[in-house]
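U., I forgot to send this yesterday:
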Amino acid sequence: MKKVDNRLQLVHDGQTKFYALRDITELSLARKTALDAQMIFADGAITKDLLKAIAKEAIKDIDEKKSIVNQSVYWNNILYRCSYPIDEDVSLRAAACVVFLEGEDIEGCSSSDIDKKVQLMKADQKAMDFFLPMGIELIPAYKPFVKGNFQNYFQTRRQVLKSLTPQP
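Result:
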């Protein structure tokens, strides 16, 4: 077991132990910058990777001269995301910016570390239930949409987005 920095406290003890700073004002510039990036994605209601994936599919359909209906589906997908903007991955990534694994560098913040923590969170339902609201609270753009049960929000959002995705 690696030694845990005394500035950290255990915040979630599940399949993986996650720690947070005792004093959040001590968050490093690198972590604040990573968190700011999540806020930019949240403001856009869609991540760059997802927008790119939707655009590639739309272009592919145009190139293959598929139905114009698919184009409508792609645009409706983007519009829906703007109406229901809280994204699960962005929320988890925001939480991952402010929590630490044992032995993790408190000052630094790499995309690979964030990705690793998000995967660990997703692999443990209790961790998901704990970190999803934390991430949502960290993103000011999400505050007007936070009402009631988070799980119902995400379940409904996933179902609608699936229905808005062209099926082969």
